[in-house]
Write a structure and sequence with these properties.
By secondary structure, this protein is an alpha/beta fold. The chain contains ten helices and ten strands. It has helices spanning 40-48, 70-77, 95-106, 111-124, 140-152, 170-187, 198-204, 222-225, 231-237, 241-262, and strands spanning 2-11, 14-24, 29-33, 55-60, 63-64, 80-83, 158-162, 190-194, 207-212, 215-220. A six-stranded mixed beta sheet has the order 6-7-8-3-9-10, sandwiched between helices. Strands 2-1-4-5 form a four-stranded antiparallel beta sheet, covered by helices on one side. Strand 7, helix 6 and strand 8 (190-194) form a beta-alpha-beta unit. The longest helix has 22 residues, at 241-262. The termini are far apart.
Length: 263
């Protein structure tokens, strides 16, 4: 479990995060959502140590990441897997070599065992047969799956994903969502996803944190989104006419069901 307590982040005279208090739950897909400039990316960077909070705590199973020494933070990061918005693969390395890279850096395993572990992760993301290809030879969706395989190769306890569906078509985005969800549950990982994708919110959002102007505005699960009375949340989620119509249909159906039960 990751717990954030009274977190503030200031850049000179601008306060970007204000008194954030939240919990990211074990074995669940935790989504951070919000408009561009709301502070959600800054929040994720504070969680992984790319930025240091102005004040507050980031607790990993009770361990305060903010107060750890440099060496303790290095060891802590070995428990983290990261998926970047651009996939961030090494162009000069094959798919297999990309997945093996964290093992080459941090694992005492033999080369054969590292190769075996990397192939297990490629199988997990349905990429067996692509291991000899280079990033330029595979699609954007396949590159994201390689990035997922690389992120889980060290068996992390925590998985951080920055806009994993960025640049992908809707069908491929669903594949990535399903993959992240199944990995989270199968491996009991605490997964944190920074996203704009409303399909992700409604499809895999088990714990959703909505950030508005640097503050936690709302927290809940996807099933609560449709009926939320938080106007800032609904304005953000239902920005399109299609989603607004869907919400109105859900609300109308709920009213009808309540009325029928009362009768």
């Amino acid at each position: 479990m990751i717990e954030v307590r009274n977190l503030y982040k200031r850049f000179e005279d601008k306060e970007v995060l204000k008194n954030i208090n939240t919990i990211f739950e074990d074995g669940k897909t935790n989504l951070i959502i919000g408009q561009s400039g709301s502070g959600k990316t800054v929040l994720m960077k504070n969680l992984v140590g790319l930025l240091e909070p102005t004040s507050g705590q980031v607790l990993y199973d009770g361990r305060d990441f903010v107060k750890m020494s440099k060496m303790e933070k290095v060891m802590m990061r070995r428990e983290m897997g990261m998926i970047f918005q651009s996939a961030a693969l090494f162009d000069s390395l094959s798919v297999l070599e990309n997945v093996m890279f964290p093992l080459d850096m941090f694992s005492p395993m033999t080369y054969r065992d590292r190769q075996k572990r990397a192939m297990e992760c490629l199988e997990r993301v349905n990429l067996v047969g692509a291991e000899k290809k280079f990033p330029s030879e595979i699609s954007g969706g396949m590159q994201k799956r390689v990035a997922i395989a690389r992120a889980i190769v060290l068996n992390p306890k925590y998985l951080f994903c920055d806009e994993p569906n960025s640049g992908l078509d809707p069908k491929t985005s669903l594949v990535i969502d399903d993959l992240l969800s199944s990995i989270t549950h199968d491996l009991n990982i605490t997964t944190i996803i920074n996203t704009h994708d409303m399909n992700s919110v409604m499809g895999i959002g088990e714990n959703i944190i909505f950030i508005y102007k640097g503050e936690k505005e709302w927290q809940g699960v996807s099933s609560q989104v449709m009926n939320s009375d938080n106007k800032r949340l609904t304005d953000f989620i239902f920005a399109s006419d299609l989603l607004k119509n869907m919400r109105e249909l859900v609300i109308a159906n709920n009213k009808y069901e309540h009325k029928r039960r009362d009768e």
